[in-house]
């Protein structure tokens, strides 16, 4: 049954189309998503899509532009309780509890990365933007680790290497537990902290 079409302000309608397209591209693939299907899911006529976008490719180009803009923004994490360990624990727990369909980056649409990955051309473009944009690990995790080193919470060493290892464990924990939720549980933060940061427990 076709969804009831309604009149919405232009910018709101455009955002609905982008949100819907992003979700459909991520779930079904770019090539398998038609403008007819997009219109039905967005609750508008197929012709109305072309009022806002010249083509389906223009929609994906818009999503790619949003990804590009996000790569050049610094994602800042506030220090919690004047503690690097508390801050990293909170970030880790938030990240692994966030579905891969969603994002903890407020500047990105849910499933945007999966939408771009749905076709080789845009996957390559997204990767190029990622590798040439700001180093998100260097601008977010490294400063927290260096703060912890100055405070004596985190052992001395190469902060970039520690940050890379931490993010690797964090991403891996979410990927494995997300793909096999009934078989694998994410490694607790304190276990990772003991391995990487040599955090001393109170006696």
From TrEMBL:
Record's keyword terms, sorted: DNA-binding, Transcription, Transcription regulation
Positions of the DNA-binding region: 34-53
Domain HTH tetR-type: 11-71
Top-rank taxon, per record: Bacteria
InterPro entries tied to this protein: Homeodomain-like_sf (IPR009057), HTH-type_TetR-like_transc_reg (IPR050109), HTH_TetR (IPR001647), Tet_transcr_reg_TetR-rel_C_sf (IPR036271)
Transmembrane segments: none
Any single Pfam family the record assigns to this protein: TetR_N
GO molecular function annotations of the record: DNA-binding transcription factor activity; transcription cis-regulatory region binding
Protein name: TetR/AcrR family transcriptional regulator
Lineage: Bacteria, Bacillati, Bacillota, Clostridia, Lachnospirales
């Amino acid at each position: 049954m076709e969804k009831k079409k309604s009149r919405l302000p232009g910018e709101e309608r455009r955002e609905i189309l982008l949100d819907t397209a992003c979700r459909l591209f991520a779930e079904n693939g770019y090539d398998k998503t038609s403008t007819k299907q997009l219109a039905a899911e967005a609750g508008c006529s197929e012709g109305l899509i072309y009022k806002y976008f010249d083509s389906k490719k223009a929609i994906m180009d818009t999503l790619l532009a949003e990804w590009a803009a996000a790569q050049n923004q610094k994602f800042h994490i506030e220090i919690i309780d004047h503690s690097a360990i508390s801050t990293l624990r909170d970030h880790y727990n938030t990240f692994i509890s966030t579905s891969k369909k969603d994002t903890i980056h407020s500047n990105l649409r849910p499933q945007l990365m999966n939408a771009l990955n749905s076709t080789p051309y845009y996957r390559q473009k997204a990767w190029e933007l990622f590798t040439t944009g700001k180093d998100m690990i260097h601008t977010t995790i490294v400063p927290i680790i260096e703060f912890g080193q100055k405070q004596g919470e985190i052992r001395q060493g190469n902060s970039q290497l520690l940050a890379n290892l931490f993010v690797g464990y964090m991403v891996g924990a979410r990927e494995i537990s997300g793909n096999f939720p009934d078989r694998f549980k994410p490694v607790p933060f304190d276990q990772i902290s003991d391995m990487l940061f040599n955090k001393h427990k109170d006696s």
